[in-house]
Amino acid sequence: MIIGYVRVSTQDQNLDSQIRAIEEYALRQKGELKIFEEKASGTRVNRSELSKALDPSVLREGDTFIVYRLDRLARSVKQLHEIAELLDERKVNFVSLQDNIDTKTATGKAMFGMIAVFAEFERNLIAERTKAGLESAKVQGKLGGRPALKKSTKERVRQLYSRGVSASELAKEYNIGRSTVYKILNEEKGG
C-alpha cells in the first residue's frame, strides 16, 4: 500500500499538483494508493490528517509513505527525524518526490541518515548556545526574570487587599501573578 500525505498552509493554495505527482508515482509502482489531505499551517501542532496517515492501523510494515516535498511533512529537522525514526521502526519505505529521497535505495537511506545527524547537531547547538547565554548573563550580573517590586507597590497591594480588593484584581492591576499577590500578603505576616 502507498500512503500519500499532502499539505498546503493556506486555504488559497491548491493540493492538486502534489496529488497528481503522488498518483503518477503510484501508477509507476503499480501500488494501491490512499492520500491524506491537510489544509493547515505546518506550525499547527495538531495535524489530524498526518496523525491518521501515520496511524499503525493505516501505515504498516512494507508500505510506502510518500510526500511531494519534505517541507510538506515537517517544519524542522527534529520533527522530520522523529517521523523518519517512526517509519524506520515500522519498516516503512519513505519517498519524497521533489527531494529525490527513496529509502529503498542506498542513497535514500544515506540521505535519511544525514537528516538524523543534522537533527542531533541542531539539538547540541541549541543546548550549547543556551548554556553560553546563561553563563554570559550570570557573569554580567543579570539574573533574569521580572524586576523586583518596589516596597511602595507591595504596601499598596496589602492596603488594597485589606480594603476588599481581590487577589485576581490586584494581579491584573499590577501585572503580576496571583501567587505573587499572596506572596506579598504572606511577607507581611512574617512567613
Automatic annotation (TrEMBL):
Gene Ontology molecular-function annotations: DNA binding; DNA strand exchange activity
**Resolvase/invertase-type recombinase catalytic domain ranges (all copies):** 1-141
Q: Where are the transmembrane segments?
A: none
The protein's matches in PROSITE patterns, at most eight in alphabetical order, are given as: RECOMBINASES_1 (PS00397), RECOMBINASES_2 (PS00398), RECOMBINASES_3 (PS51736)
Which keywords does this chain's UniProt record carry? DNA integration, DNA recombination, DNA-binding, Plasmid
Location of the active site: S9 (o-(5'-phospho-dna)-serine intermediate)
Protein name, as recorded: Resolvase, N-terminal:Resolvase helix-turn-helix region
